[in-house]
Design a protein that fits this description.
The chain is built from eleven helices and no strands. The protein is mainly alpha-helical. It has two domains: 28-128; 130-230, Tetratricopeptide repeat domain (Serine Threonine Protein Phosphatase 5, Tetratricopeptide repeat), CATH 1.25.40.10. The chain is flat and about 75 Å long.
């Protein structure tokens, strides 16, 4: 037993000595790499502190008047700005790497949608980083609304379903999956409609507007020839 322990100790000492030799032989390389890492950290900090953070504040201040116009449904002012202030389109372009620039994409998309400029609206919704739990699904669903307005119902249904299954909750999920179900019914795609309604039954059973979900499921199944009386 003592021989085994002695062998393990010897192996560990041998490994330690090899590591020490490697370290001694490569001290210059290690110092360069260490200095490089420190330099990168310093550059990252400087970029955020001296450039990114001030830019974020500047963009947020510029977006304030756009947000006020958006709340009032003043969509011309949202797009073009008012009283010498930038509009959402300009902010989205000039401050594209900021949170405010990202939100400007969403506001521009909504404004363009209300003005029936559907293709342009789609472009802005697609540029919007849809990580927000509510605006994210809505931006996707609004792409569906744009396609529906263009009578492209298959594309609309696809985006409604995608929006409904992103960030599952009782608000956006029910809103967009009911729209998806209705769109699939319009396309006579009853299997897909059933899938939407059954997803709601499973994942949003506590939502106020899913209390009658079995009626939607049974209707879609009946139209698909699958109805079974209960």
């Amino acid at each position: 037993m003592s021989e085994i322990i002695e062998n393990e100790v010897a192996q560990k000492q041998d490994l330690i000595s090899k590591l020490q030799r490697w370290f001694n032989q490569n001290q210059k390389l290690i110092s360069y790499v260490g200095a490089g890492i420190v330099g990168l950290i310093a550059l990252f900090w400087a970029y955020n502190y001296f450039y990114k953070e001030p830019l974020e504040k500047e963009a947020a201040n510029l977006l304030y008047s756009v947000e006020k116009a958006f709340e009032k449904d003043s969509f011309d002012a949202v797009l073009k700005g008012s009283q010498g202030n930038m509009g959402a389109i300009e902010i989205a372009e000039e401050y594209s790497g900021t949170k405010a620039g990202n939100l400007a994409n969403y506001m521009a998309g909504v404004a363009l949608f209300t003005k029936s400029e559907y293709d342009k609206a789609i472009d802005y919704f697609e540029d919007f980083n849809a990580s927000d739990p509510f605006l994210g699904p809505n931006s996707i669903g609004l792409i569906g609304d744009c396609h529906a307005a263009k009578k492209e119902y298959a594309k609309a249904a696809k985006y409604f379903a995608k929006a409904g299954k992103k960030n599952i909750n009782n608000l956006t999920t029910t809103h967009w999956l009911f729209k998806a179900g209705a769109a699939y019914e319009k396309l006579d795609k009853w299997d897909d409609a059933v899938d939407c309604y059954e997803f709601l039954k499973k994942n949003c059973k506590d939502a106020a507007n899913t209390k009658q979900i079995d009626k939607y499921i049974n209707y879609a199944k009946a139209r698909n020839g699958e109805f079974k009386a209960k």
